[in-house]
Amino acid sequence: MNEYLFTSIEGETVSPNFSEVENCQLLARINAPNKNAARNKLLEENKWITVTDFSAEELIVDQIITKEQISDIKRIVDFLWESAKSSCEEMNYPQDHIFMVLKRIKEMVVDYK
Could you give the angle at the alpha carbon of 85 between the alpha carbons of 73 and 113, nearest 5°? Predict the structure, then answer.
């Protein structure tokens, strides 16, 4: 299952000192198999979005990587690491070798919890 964040740049919020502030608002976090299903689920489960005149077409949707997906990526990198490293060393570390991609991914996900 994928996870999506829905944000809007419509409307205003109130700051701690009660001033109106234009900003980006996080409306929801939705789990769904794809972006379209997530949008449908968002609007179905959160009627207030359209009732309060947020534009469904203007919503910004970003897929985020779930903990399960990070775990899967780590497993793949670990599985491929040694053979790709050996091959890369034999080729004197070319920058376009798949090992360099694995190295960047490994560095990215190493501290993700």
Answer: 25
Predicted confidence (pLDDT) at residue 80 exceeds the cutoff of 90: no
Which contiguous run of DSSP H or E holds residue 12? strand 12-14
Q: Where exactly are the structural domains of the chain?
A: 2-64, 67-109
Determine the Cα–Cα distance for residues 61 and 29; give it in Å rounded to an integer.
Answer: 10
pTM of the model: 0.71
Helix, strand, or coil here: 65? coil
Predicted pLDDT at 59: 94
Alpha helices in 1-113 (DSSP H): 35-45, 48-51, 67-90, 98-109
| Architecture of the structural domain at 2-64 | Roll (3.10)
